[in-house]
Specification:
This protein is α/β, with parallel strands linked by helices. It has a single domain, classed as 3-Layer(aba) Sandwich (Rossmann fold), CATH 3.40.50.9100. Helices cover 37% and strands 18% of the residues. It is built from five helices and five strands, in the order E-H-H-E-H-E-H-E-E-H. Strand 3, helix 4 and strand 4 form a beta-alpha-beta unit. The relative contact order is 0.21. Bound molecules: 1,3,4-trihydroxy-5-OXO-cyclohexanecarboxylic acid. 1,3,4-trihydroxy-5-OXO-cyclohexanecarboxylic acid (DQA) binds next to loops.
């Protein structure tokens, strides 16, 4: 099974960015943790991060025929991007939406998620463990 893990804008700033909300662990650590979980579960994981909406759309389009599942934390694009939603719908790959923080308990604008209209599952407020749970969900789904 091949899973593409996409992180959107400012997630490269993990560890520095608002540590009271997102914690002190870095993006590099996140990648290490998901890669090691991939090995444990016999899953091939590719990690991709971009601050650009168009690059995320392009990466999703290119996932067609290459990946069995997508884990996506679109960052702030969660709340604005119909383009990312449409890209996910275009390739129709099973998708789990992840947020490190509990988005539904923050500002009202964070309660809106376009991606959630397509994603099979949304995991939020569980920190880095949310990515692990998302991978496990896709692995189980593919069995
Ligand atoms: C986030 C929540 C978003 O509202 C925010 O814009 C992010 C990170 C999260 O992981 O909790 O960049 O997706």
């Amino acid at each position: 099974m091949k899973i593409l893990v996409i992180n959107g804008p400012n997630l490269n700033m993990l560890g520095v960015r608002e540590p009271d909300i997102y914690g002190r662990k870095t993006y590099k650590t996140l990648v290490k943790e998901i890669m090691s979980h991939g090995k444990k579960t016999g899953t091939k994981i590719t990690a991709f991060q971009s601050n650009c909406e168009g690059r995320i759309v392009g990466k999703i389009q290119k996932a067609l025929g290459k990946y069995d599942g997508i884990v996506i934390n679109p960052g702030a694009y969660t709340h604005t991007s119909i383009a990312i939603l449409d890209a996910l719908k275009s390739v129709n790959i099973p998708t789990v939406e992840v947020h490190i923080s509990e988005v539904d308990e923050r500002e009202d604008f964070r309660k809106v998620s376009y991606v959630r209209l397509f994603a099979e599952k949304c995991i939020s407020g569980k920190g880095f463990d949310g990515y692990i749970e998302a991978i496990d969900y896709l692995v189980k789904r593919g069995e």
